[in-house]
User: Fold P-loop containing nucleoside triphosphate hydrolase protein from Tilletiaria anomala.
Amino acid sequence: MTGTAACLEPTIIWCLPRSCSTAFERAFIQRSHDTITFHEPTGDAAYFSKERQIYRFKEKECRSDPHRYERGLKEVMEDLVQGKGKDIGGKKYIFIKDMAQYIFPASTLQALHPGSRVYHPTSPEYQPPVKPSEPVVKTPLPDFSKPLAADFGTSVKSNPTALPTALLRQFKHTFLIRTPNKSVLSYYKCAQEGAGGFEYFDGAEAGYKELALLHAWISNPQSDFHVDADAAASNKEDGQEHVSRKKRGVGTDGVPISQPMPPPLIEASTLLAEPNHVLEQYCNAIGIPFYKGMLSWESSKKKEATDADVKAQVDANRRTVYKENGNANVEVNGSSNASLADFAKWGTYHRVAEESTGFRKESTPANGAGDNVGATEKEPLLPKEVQETIEANKSAYDYLLSNQTIHLHATA
Assistant:
């Protein structure tokens, strides 16, 4: 690492699979003059480390990459604070795109998804040798099968993740969502095509419930993300409701990391309808200048990959880039400089974002309630497991949508 990370305040956008998040990340990759980006860094720990809490891949495959296997979730996040593994000379910002479910403990994931294959090892060959670390405080889980209570947003007071609160305070937290009617179906199609080496679809990976819990905790000014329990008790006599966030979160140089409140939250359809407006508002919210060069980029056309190609990628440690124009493959480490090469670890999963040149406009923003999950003239009836996954995540999505902070331009 060159330069110093002392002045860099890392921002994370927590998202869902198939939520237009990689296109959003590409916008920040365009800021190579002042920003370093990381692509789903906690995914390696969640899927492949010896402390992993997602059991989609066999132990033998996870061990095939020793570096990835030995790095736990906490180590990955600590490295992100410092921008470790990057040339940060002259850079001002760190931007990270990641999935909320990757930072939740195995016990919570299993409780949220009791029938899931990915969160319950189906045989010893999928079982990691090390039991993942569990948080001291267990957060009571809501019933996501029905609409969430009106006070859900203020009910999550204890850290629901597997990471220390002090570590999470060193990041700015933002959110990106998409209606499950679109993201779940897209995720299902990727699994059916074998993208990322996936051999089956598991609706538990949709990520809405974990994202809702994380958002509720971060956005609640009375949660222990903002309030230190001991300090709150000692200040009670003074009538102080909570300790100021600016007195709590200490970053890499002893400098407080100010959390934007409420946490910026974008709905993907709004992003696609007005990318210029949304990106400008988002940049303002996290305290960085908007740059018009974020709105477009060059396509990186890949060769057509078959399911066999994807499987071959997985067998080769999922760390090689597809051959392009006859050039030799390039190896990629999970912590290398974010670029299109970083997407290769998930095979063809990000192909659309890789081959795009900008945000693909959608004419009708999602409203969360009016989308039809049944048959239409253009779309056949959805598979039962897709419909069930959509319904199972509706309450979490509706909660998140109600907390959207960046909206379309007001119209007369």
In short: The chain is about 30% helix and 5% strand. The chain has a mean pLDDT of 78. The first strand starts at residue 9 and ends at 15.
